[in-house]
TrEMBL record:
It is found in: Cell outer membrane. InterPro entries: TolC-like. Keywords: Cell outer membrane, Coiled coil, Membrane, Transmembrane, Transmembrane beta strand. The keyword Methyltransferase does not apply. GO terms for cellular component: cell outer membrane; efflux pump complex. This is Outer membrane efflux protein. It comes from Algibacter lectus. GO terms for molecular function: efflux transmembrane transporter activity; porin activity.
Length: 422
């Protein structure tokens, strides 16, 4: 089991402009266009289910109309004539083909019968497609959390560096006042004063660079969250716990859905081999002669049965392809499992090693803090040079920065652990 991450805590009151990690994560989730698009795609999938049911189970009603005229030339002395009894010398289409014309206006109704299995297969395929979109949104959200968390950690590290540098500067400026008095009393040389003053100016430049980097890091947080750049007084410490092992890893859900997609596609392919029964009926006008046209209104109905017989073994070949695709998925699934287990074990080892190093460094910093206090007292008494004092501060600063980097790496490792242990 991993230990809970120990985090730096702040004693300052939280101002209105303070921001926490969850604030940026939640805003990113709200503003990411891909997630919004996927939500609409899920709604489209629900509508598609209704379309599938309508296409396969509902009555289909339409109207058709047709007017066909097939005249004869040189019929019984007439240059052009429309008739169903042309003379032997008339020129025109065979009356057995055209009947001289067609006057039709009908309402047609069709309905598929006994096709629930076909409909269920189509609905199943649509459901799996929607599941793929849902998994895509889940993965995008998970990546958002990781990206925002890492960016927030790096920004918070800069804030800690800023606070530490300010504390160092504040202490050096106090020392500068003491050195000034000692120079006036001829205890220290003027060069000592100038050297300390120069170091303070260097620290101010360093602080300015850190603050510029912090502003850039915060602006990046706003950009990643899809928000206009705002003003932040301070960032709160990133507070998150180690993720427990899920009951089912995301990769398992994804491979399961991919496997079902293969099954769904196979079922859709095999829909064409199911017997299909269609009932149809129509009513309206259907005539070949204009005389007595009003008496040519009627109705008709029938059944159409379609039974596939032979397809050149396409069904067999498609089934073989599906089996091979399933095997490919299993290859990747097993490889992903091994990679995941190795990565988790590696990160756990890194975190344990980092914890040990941080404990040793904390002891070293405690000793350096004591030495620094001793040197402050000796500096006041003029017993040490400014160079020695600045060297002690520099060593303390380097180790403090190392501690900040270790803490940052600790958070980043936990972020990575939560990212892959999912």
């Amino acid at each position: 089991m991993l230990l809970l991450i120990a985090i730096f805590t702040c004693s300052l009151l939280v101002a209105q402009e303070n921001r926490m990690l969850d604030f940026f994560v939640n805003k990113a989730k709200e503003n990411t266009p891909v997630i919004k698009e996927n939500n609409n795609l899920l709604k489209i999938g629900e509508i598609q289910s209704s379309i599938i049911k309508a296409q396969n189970n509902a009555f289909q009603v339409n109207t058709t109309s047709e007017l066909l005229v097939a005249p004869y030339f040189n019929n019984n002395g007439k240059v052009i004539d429309i008739t169903t009894t042309p003379s032997i010398n008339a020129i025109g289409y065979d009356v057995g083909v055209t009947n001289g014309g067609l006057y039709s206006a009908q309402i047609n109704v069709t309905k598929n019968l006994f096709n629930q299995a076909i409909t269920d297969n189509l609905l199943f395929q649509n459901k799996i497609s929607s599941n793929s979109i849902g998994l895509s949104s889940e993965e995008i959200t998970h990546n958002i959390v990781k990206n925002i968390t890492d960016a927030y950690i790096l920004a918070y590290q800069l804030q800690l560096q800023e606070n530490f540098t300010k504390d160092i500067l504040k202490d050096l400026e106090k020392r500068l006042q003491v050195v000034e008095l000692l120079v006036k009393r001829a205890v220290l040389m003027e060069s000592d004063y100038l050297l300390l003053q120069l170091d303070i100016e260097g620290k101010k430049l360093e602080l300015q660079q850190i603050q510029n980097n912090l502003k850039t890091a915060i602006n990046q947080l706003y950009s990643l969250s899809g928000m206009p750049i705002g003003t932040i007084e301070k960032l709160e410490a990133p507070n998150f716990n180690t993720a427990s092992e899920p009951s089912k890893f995301f990769y398992q859900k994804k491979f399961k859905n991919d496997s079902l997609q293969i099954v769904a596609n196979q079922k859709i392919f095999e829909n064409q081999y199911k017997p299909q029964v269609t009932a149809y009926a129509n009513t309206g006008l259907n005539a070949v002669e204009i005389p007595n046209l009003y008496r040519r209104f009627g109705a008709s109905a029938g059944l159409r049965l379609t039974i596939p017989i032979y397809d050149g073994k396409q069904r067999k070949y498609n089934a073989q392809q599906s089996i091979l695709k399933e095997e490919n998925l299993n290859f990747y699934k097993e490889n992903t499992k091994v990679q995941l287990e190795n990565n988790i074990a590696t990160i756990e080892q890194q975190i344990v090693a980092l914890e040990d190093n941080m404990a040793l460094l904390n002891k070293q910093l405690d000793k350096q803090q004591n030495i620094l206090e001793i040197y402050k007292g000796k500096l006041v008494q003029g017993q040490i040079s400014i160079v020695d004092y600045l060297n002690v501060i520099q060593n303390y600063k380097l180790n403090s920065y190392t501690k900040l980097q270790m803490q940052t790496n600790y958070w980043l490792l936990q972020s990575q652990y939560n990212f892959i242990n999912w």
